[in-house]
Amino acid sequence: MAEEQLDFGAELARAREQHGITLPELARRTKIGVDALKAIERCDVTALPGGLYTRGFLRAYAREVGLNPDEIVRRYREKFTEQDQAANAIAQLDEGVNVTCAPGQVHVK
Predict the structure, then answer these.
(1) Is 99 exposed, middle or buried (0-12, 13-18, 19+ CB in 10 A)?
(2) Residues in CB range of 4: below 8 A, 6 or more apart
(3) Residues 72, 73, 75, 79: is their CA dihedral positive or negative?
(4) pTM of the model
(5) pLDDT digits (tens, 9 = 90+) for 51-68
(6) Which residues have C-beta within 8 Å of that of residue 68, sequence separation ≥ 6?
(7) What is the distance between the alpha carbons of residues 19 and 26, in angstroms, rounded to a whole number?
(8) Do residues 25 and 55 make contact, with C-beta atoms less than 8 angstroms apart?
(9) How far is CA 36 from CA 1, 4, 5, 11, 64, in A?
(10) Using one digit for the tens of pLDDT, what is the confidence trace for 80-109?
(11) In terms of Cα–Cα distance, which of 24, 84, 28 is closest to 54?
(12) In whole angstroms, what is the distance from residue 70 CA to residue 63 CA?
């Protein structure tokens, strides 16, 4: 890889800023609290609920800022496999899911 890839949190933050979306506006659109959105941007998984909820938050955030939700979740899993034990148990459930929920809603299988 020619240049180092941004971590998923920094990439989400950059995309949000490029779209001119404030954290309070993103919180309103996604129904995710500002503190959780800040934690996502810092990649601070200890401040997030974990498992399915965190992946849902990441998908909603990515959709709102025009990034690929599956790619963001894949990178999250890659970086935090051990910390996200629930992801290991149910990883096969949302692999490759094509989500058609309205913005701000979390798809649960």
Answers:
(1) middle
(2) none
(3) positive
(4) 0.72
(5) 889 999 999 999 999 999
(6) 62
(7) 11
(8) no
(9) 31, 26, 23, 16, 15
(10) 876 555 544 544 455 555 545 555 566 555
(11) 84
(12) 10
Q: What is the 3-state secondary structure (H, E, C) of the chain?
A: CCCCCCCHHHHHHHHHHHCCCCHHHHHHHHCCCHHHHHHHHHCCHHHCCCHHHHHHHHHHHHHHCCCCHHHHHHHHHHHHCCCCHHHHHHHHHHCCCCCCCCCCCCCCC
Please compute the mean of the pLDDT values over residues 41-52 and round it to a whole number. 89
Average pLDDT, the chain: 81
The pair of three-digit structure tokens given for residue 5, joined into one six-digit string: 């890839």
Q: Considering the chain, what percentage of its residues have pLDDT values greater than 90?
A: 58
Cβ atoms < 10 Å from Cβ of 30: 21
Give 41's contacts (C-beta < 8 A, 6+ positions apart).
9, 10, 12, 13, 16
Residue in the block written with tokens 């990515």: 62
